[in-house]
Design goal:
Distance between the termini: 16 Å
Oligomer: single chain
Structural class: alpha/beta
Largest sheet: 4 strands, parallel
Number of domains: 1
Helix content: 25-40%
Radius of gyration: 15 Å
Number of helices: 6
Length: 170
């Protein structure tokens, strides 16, 4: 049975920058949780950032790939550089995924760590651009498929493709 890395905030843990959770009501996630398949993880906390913490965005909306290559930084609205914490958290997420044989992750959309479709544009005005967060970029670079909380059914389909006999309803 495949294990699944999941954003801790989606599991009700109050780890987001504002000290809140973004608990998912998805029935499939709940079933996987009951089966003990989920590995809850917050890369920002694991990278050493406190809860609560200042909001952060990738400068210029460049995306996690640019952060991994050193071409962009992760900054707070006040201009503090928190790039190293985001990189450290991404490396810790990859290590956790490898430890548990994870090949699929479900991460919080929009986050500068976990976004898989969109991220904030770096202007701290609520604008979004297509892109990946730092953790998503690193996981995908290493062959781990990342889905947002609105695409859990797609994650289940990917698990079926990987030969998982218990991915959830078809």
């Amino acid at each position: 049975m495949e294990r699944i890395l999941v954003s801790a905030c989606l599991m009700g843990r109050k780890v987001r920058y504002d000290g809140a959770a973004k608990t998912s009501g998805d029935a499939l996630l709940a079933a996987w949780r009951q089966q003990g398949r989920l590995i809850p993880f917050c890369p920002e906390v694991e990278g050493g950032l406190p809860v609560p913490r200042p909001a952060a965005e990738i400068e210029g909306g460049a995306g996690g790939e640019a952060v991994l290559s050193g071409a962009a930084r992760v900054l707070t609205a006040e201009g503090a550089d928190v790039t190293e914490a985001f990189l450290s958290g991404a490396r810790a997420a990859l290590a956790a995924a490898r430890t548990h044989g994870v090949r699929v992750a479900i991460l919080k959309e929009g986050s500068p760590s976990c976004g898989s479709l969109v991220i904030y544009d770096g202007a701290f005005e609520g604008g979004r651009v297509p892109g990946h967060g730092v953790t998503t970029a690193l996981l995908e670079r290493h062959g781990i498929a990342v889905f947002c909380e609105e695409r859990v059914a797609e994650a289940a389909a990917r698990l079926r493709e990987l030969g998982d006999r218990h991915p959830g309803p078809t």
